[in-house]
Design goal:
Blueprint: H1 4-15, E1 22-26, E2 38-40, E3 44-47, E4 51-52, E5 64-67, E6 71-74, E7 86-94, E8 102-108, E9 117-122, E10 130-133, E11 138-140, E12 153-159, E13 164-169, E14 172-178, E15 189-193, H2 197-202, E16 211-220, H3 226-271, H4 273-281, H5 286-319, H6 322-325, H7 327-330, H8 333-359
Antiparallel strand pairs: 1-2, 1-16, 3-6, 4-5, 5-16, 6-15, 7-12, 7-16, 8-9, 8-15, 9-10, 10-11, 12-13, 13-14
Helix pairs in contact: 3-5, 3-8, 5-8
Length: 374
């Protein structure tokens, strides 16, 4: 059941728009083995200095981080071959286009045969033009706003099997190309991410390496429509919006917890007013009188934090929701548990202090003579 729930939700949402089959969906949210699990597909091996980010730097969760001399290679997945229809979708964040252009993904054969490879990236000498290269042939997109502006952009290219290429940028059409020949992609090498297939195998040819972040790589076995592409970009935005909603809900729950703790402590203070009076008569300092109530609130908050941490950790692993909502929310689960406990303690302390301020009467012998009770 590791990723079963996430897969069901993702597939059901996407098939509501298009019945296309996703052959690869790599989201770079690492698990205990250090690899990058795909909802559909396989794992990636990090080559060179490639790393997975931490702290939720991806479009949703983590991302593949590249230094301009490294890449990731899929394990036993070689892409889509021949002249078959296909769609490549990914998110990229970069500020650099190499002198000879930059490739984001590629597969096929490294030989010199016509149309034997399939690479996607940036056209050399530009900041906002996409290039789909096949060897002895290529297609280029329109030009527009810079892609190398160090912000996240969604990039997609489709090929329908009938010599038609369509580019998309951030969900919008970004140019088309009509080829005069069929593709002949050979399935020789495993798919690489962060460079082209020839650059990966020859390690440095033309230096078309990505420097920046890549996330949420998907490969489909059909040419998605414009509506499909728009949905892909919208899905990530919905996930980001869901994270914001969850944070707001957590804040609301935190306020409610503080109120409950304050009410509980307030009832305890009211029930022990006679004890407080005796303590004051015996000369007990105020901090000694208040301390048990503050400790009670802190303990209640800590228990609530522990329960919340166990629920989040257990639920994330049981239902596999981490890849869906992204580690930008759940992060490293042990740290989240500790954070929830600290939050619970803070809320308990604040609630108990509020309760004491509103329900514990002041010591009459500490008030000015004219305000003392008689």
């Amino acid at each position: 059941m590791k990723n079963y729930a996430a897969l069901l939700i993702m597939v059901s949402l996407m098939t509501a728009v298009a019945p296309a089959v996703v052959e690869l969906h790599l989201n770079f949210d690492t698990e205990e083995d250090g690899l990058s699990p795909a909802l559909v597909g396989t794992d990636a091996t990090l080559m060179g200095n490639a790393t997975i980010t931490t702290g939720g730097q991806g479009i949703s969760g983590e991302a593949l981080q590249l230094d301009g001399e490294s890449f990731a290679q899929l394990m036993d997945y070689k892409g889509i071959g021949g002249n078959d229809a296909r769609t490549v979708s990914l998110w990229v964040k970069t500020a650099v286009n190499q002198a000879n252009g930059t490739f984001f993904i590629g597969w096929g054969d490294t030989g010199l045969g016509a149309r034997v490879r399939y690479d996607l990236g940036l056209q050399s000498g530009t900041a906002g033009q996409l290039r789909n290269e096949f060897n002895a042939g290529a297609a280029t997109s329109a030009t527009g706003a810079p892609i190398t502006d160090d912000v996240w952009h969604h990039i997609a290219v489709t090929y329908d099997g009938n010599r038609n290429v369509a580019f998309y940028l951030d969900g919008d059409p970004y140019g088309t190309a009509a080829l005069t020949w069929d593709l002949a992609t050979l399935l020789t090498e495993d798919v690489v991410i962060g460079t082209g297939i020839r650059e990966a195998t020859e390690w440095g040819a033309l230096a078309r390496w990505t420097e920046g972040l890549i996330d949420d790589v998907q490969i489909y076995n059909t040419a998605l429509s414009q509506a499909d592409i728009e949905w892909l970009t919208m899905l990530n935005r919905l996930v980001a919006g869901a994270v914001i909603v969850i944070v707001l809900l957590l804040a609301s729950v935190g306020v409610a917890v503080s109120i409950v703790i304050a009410r509980t402590i307030g009832l305890g203070v009211t029930a022990r007013l006679h004890v407080v009076e005796i303590q004051r008569i015996l000369g007990a300092p105020e901090w000694l009188i208040r301390r048990p109530f503050v400790i009670m609130g802190i303990v209640q908050g800590a228990i609530g934090g522990v329960v919340a941490g166990i629920t989040v950790t257990g639920g994330a692993h049981l239902f596999g929701i981490v890849p869906l909502i992204g580690r930008s929310l759940v992060g490293n689960l042990p740290q989240v548990t500790i954070g929830l406990i600290v939050l619970g303690i803070t809320l308990g302390w604040w609630g108990s202090r509020s309760a004491l301020a509103s329900t514990l009467p002041p010591d009459p012998w500490l008030e000015p003579p004219e305000r003392r009770r008689t």
